[in-house]
């Protein structure tokens, strides 16, 4: 017997309809590429996304055709999120920080039909447009009078001219909730990039889950600043969960430096911010010497890579901002776990609570996780046993776009498929996950594993160190030994010996790095994460001391 509830597909268009009706006057504020501040409302987003949908209907496209963006976080990008997916096409957000060759490869692989870009990416588009064989229309996200006259891009139109005359009364179509809605290519450190292809259903379920109090906990009283880019995993779903809750949204545009982000937080009374540790490092570095304080910021989600303890301490104890450490991946839409305390933790000391916040947190309802050993045997949740982390759930990929890379899932005894995350983790008795490493970054020394994240966290806890990256280097007896590459804070001094001494008592003796390498900069990839592959290349000729 089936239930007797109404059969209504979960579609992205319903989010924007909801936001318009219930939070129509809720503000959307964007720092534009031009540098000025643009403000309007959820009702305006809804009206203009309908114009986008109408304009797309006039472009001779098929259902599920891909529409690409090369754009910062801003209101026009948000309109494309709704107009493209809502009308049955697939929004393909491209990471502009990728190499131009890779961008052209991705656009061809996705068979993008239209590509919309912020004018700051004009040189990039000029470099790649001739190689993007399937793109038949290029749209610059600008006013008609800002369109460059001699761009060299055939048929280039401005976004405002493209949607300007379109009717505003478009009726959103209804279709299967499992239809594709958007896609995002993974960073692809090995082999070709692979795309996660999200559906309307997976996106809505993820948006519901993200809004829960122990997840992102967004509400109609929040002013949320997604510093995490809309070109990478849908800005952690904030464009959707903000519409679902009616939160005010503040988009930082291209200005991600500490000063600009701080000014925006204060000016727009931001209560909630989300970003990767590198961005928050820039913010804290700007604030500390100037003695600045937050007046409205209450919570910040930090994820994408491990949040160093020093950063948790600074936000929590120096600034009174709650840190929500999150873990996820492109293939998971992206949220998997979020670190919020349980009732029993509330009586603990601030330091003990911070130690919990260092973990990546508890699984969100909808995400099943387990850790397994090399033979696929499930390991205990005791906070000590570490193994390969596998996940499953309705917003986790079952296959990549065009089946690139084959079937990624690992079947269990019941034949259910689990996605191998490539992360190594522990899970404690309370269900808190802690990522030890990427499986390819873990250092294997004499048969034991050393977490490169632990080694990096200790280094950045030293006042003279701004950034650290730990890699394993060949050793004839131990196979690998850890060395740590560090960038000093401007004007700060520390010697190799002092830093190695700093490790004593903070980790097991055999885990202390064999060497410290002082570098000017550590390579950062397109999504703000340390590029260990590149660092290994840079240190290719390096030999451990004494060898
Ligand atoms: P991406 O698909 O580019 O978002 O990268 C996902 C990967 O980033 C994960 O598999 C982890 O290795 C890493 N990652 C994400 N969040 C965290 C976190 N909070 N701590 C440690 N690693 C993380």
The second-level CATH architecture of the domain at 12-255 is 3-Layer(aba) Sandwich
Average the pLDDT over all residues and give the rounded result: 95
Query: Approximately how much helix is present in the residues?
Result: 25-40%
CATH topology of the domain at 12-255: Rossmann fold
CA-atom Rg in angstroms: 24 Å
CATH superfamily of the domain at 12-255: ANL, N-terminal domain
Name the CATH class of the domain at 12-255: Alpha Beta
Shape summary:
globular
* Bound ions, cofactors and other small molecules, one mention each: adenosine monophosphate
Question: If you had to describe this structure to a student in words, what would you say it looks like?
Answer:
With 547 residues, the protein is an alpha/beta fold. Among the domains are: 12-255, Rossmann fold, CATH 3.40.50; 448-538, GMP Synthetase, Chain A, domain 3, CATH 3.30.300. The chain has 16 helices and 26 strands. The strands form 4 sheets. Strands 1, 2, 10, 11, 12, 13, 14, 15, 16, 17, 18, 19, 20 and 21 form a 14-stranded mixed sheet that branches. The termini are far apart. The model has no long low-confidence stretch (mean pLDDT 95). The structure holds adenosine monophosphate. The site of adenosine monophosphate has 21 residues, from strand 14, strand 20 and strand 21.
């Amino acid at each position: 017997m089936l239930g007797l509830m109404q059969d209504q597909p979960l579609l992205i268009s319903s989010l924007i309809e909801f936001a318009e009706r219930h939070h129509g006057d809720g503000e959307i504020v964007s720092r534009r590429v031009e540098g000025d501040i643009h403000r309007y409302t959820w009702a305006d987003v809804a009206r203009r996304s309908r114009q986008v949908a109408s304009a797309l209907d006039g472009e001779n496209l098929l259902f599920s055709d891909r529409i690409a963006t090369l754009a910062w976080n801003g209101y026009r990008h948000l309109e494309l999120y709704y107009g493209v997916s809502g009308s049955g096409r697939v929004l393909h957000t491209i990471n502009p920080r990728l190499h131009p060759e890779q961008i052209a490869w991705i656009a061809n692989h996705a068979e993008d039909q239209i590509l919309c870009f912020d004018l700051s990416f004009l040189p990039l588009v000029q470099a790649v447009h001739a190689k993007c064989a399937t793109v038949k229309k290029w749209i610059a996200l600008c006013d008609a009078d800002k369109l460059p006259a001699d761009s060299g891009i055939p048929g280039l139109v401005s976004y405002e001219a493209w949607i300007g005359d379109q009717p505003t009364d478009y009726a959103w179509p209804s279709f299967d909730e499992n239809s594709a809605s958007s896609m995002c290519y993974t960073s692809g450190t090995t082999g070709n990039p692979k795309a996660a292809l999200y559906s309307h259903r997976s996106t809505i379920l993820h948006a519901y889950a993200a809004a829960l109090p122990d997840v992102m906990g967004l509400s109609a009283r929040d002013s949320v600043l997604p510093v995490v880019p809309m070109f990478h995993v849908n800005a952690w779903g904030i464009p959707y969960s903000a519409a679902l809750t009616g939160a005010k949204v503040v988009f930082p545009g291209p200005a991600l430096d500490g000063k600009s982000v701080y000014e925006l937080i204060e000016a727009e009374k931001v209560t909630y911010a989300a970003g990767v540790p590198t961005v928050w490092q820039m913010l804290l570095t700007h604030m500390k010497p100037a003695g600045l304080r937050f007046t409205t910021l209450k919570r910040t989600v930090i994820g994408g890579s491990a949040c160093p303890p020093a950063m948790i301490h600074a936000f929590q104890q120096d600034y009174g901002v709650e840190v929500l450490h999150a873990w996820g991946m492109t293939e998971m839409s992206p949220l998997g776990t979020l670190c919020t305390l349980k009732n029993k933790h509330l009586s603990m000391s601030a330091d003990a609570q911070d130690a919990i916040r260092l973990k990546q947190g508890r699984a969100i309802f909808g995400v099943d996780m387990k850790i397994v050993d090399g033979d696929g045997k499930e390991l205990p949740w005791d906070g000590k046993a570490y193994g390969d982390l596998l996940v499953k759930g309705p917003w986790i990929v079952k296959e990549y776009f065009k089946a690139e890379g084959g079937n990624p899932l690992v079947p269990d005894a019941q034949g259910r498929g689990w996605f191998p995350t490539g992360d190594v983790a522990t899970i404690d008795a309370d269900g808190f996950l802690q990522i030890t490493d990427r499986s390819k970054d873990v250092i294997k020394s004499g048969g034991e594993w050393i977490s490169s994240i632990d080694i990096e966290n200790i280094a950045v806890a030293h006042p003279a160190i701004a950034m650290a990256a730990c890699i394993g280097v060949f050793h004839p007896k131990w196979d690998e030994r850890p060395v740590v590459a560090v960038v000093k804070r401007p004007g700060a001094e520390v010697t190799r010996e002092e830093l190695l001494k700093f490790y004593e008592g903070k980790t097991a003796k055999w885990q202390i790095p064999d060497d410290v390498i002082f570098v000017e900069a550590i390579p950062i990839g397109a999504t703000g994460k340390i590029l260990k592959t590149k660092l290994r290349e840079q240190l290719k000729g390096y030999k451990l001391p004494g060898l």
